[in-house]
Specification:
The chain is α+β, with helices and mostly antiparallel strands. The chain is 24% helix and 42% strand. The chain contains three helices and eight strands; from the N terminus they run H-H-E-E-E-E-E-H-E-E-E. This is DUF3168 domain-containing protein.
Length: 132
């Protein structure tokens, strides 16, 4: 059985040193929360469910924060930067086999961050591990 911490470690190791990690300007975080007062492109990993059975499945969010563009005093999504980071995340997370586990990208959205001039790329992945 994989614990929530083991799952975060596996996903972290997939991302660490990848093109996505190299391109993002912020920190790669396993702590499920972003560094305080950061305005960088942080990548935050959080596990939202962990079904423990022979075929263990968990849902994991890999969120990437992107500062908005300000035009005429109004914040709007930075389409160019979000598009680039979305593509890198999709290429990396779409399907990845990591020895004993497999991750699959199941959803990718770009909602706004409440109270900040930012959006975040919300990558929901399915993590699967076979307990033998």
């Amino acid at each position: 059985m994989k614990t929530v911490i083991d799952i975060k470690d596996d996903v972290y190791n997939v991302i660490k040193g990848s093109a996505l990690d190299e391109e993002a300007t912020g920190k790669l975080c396993k702590s499920s929360k972003r560094p305080a007062n950061s305005d960088k492109e942080d990548i935050v990993i959080s596990v939202i469910g962990n079904n423990v059975s022979q075929m263990q499945e968990a849902f994991v969010y890999v969120n990437i924060y992107v500062k908005d563009n300000i035009r005429d005093g109004e914040a709007e999504i930075n389409d160019t930067r979000c598009r680039e980071l979305c593509r890198l995340a999709s290429d990396l997370l779409e399907v990845h086999n990591g020895g004993c586990f497999r991750i699959t990208l199941v959803e990718q959205t770009t909602p706004p961050v409440n109270g900040k001039d930012e959006h975040f790329i919300k990558n929901k992945i399915l993590y699967q591990y076979c307990n033998e």
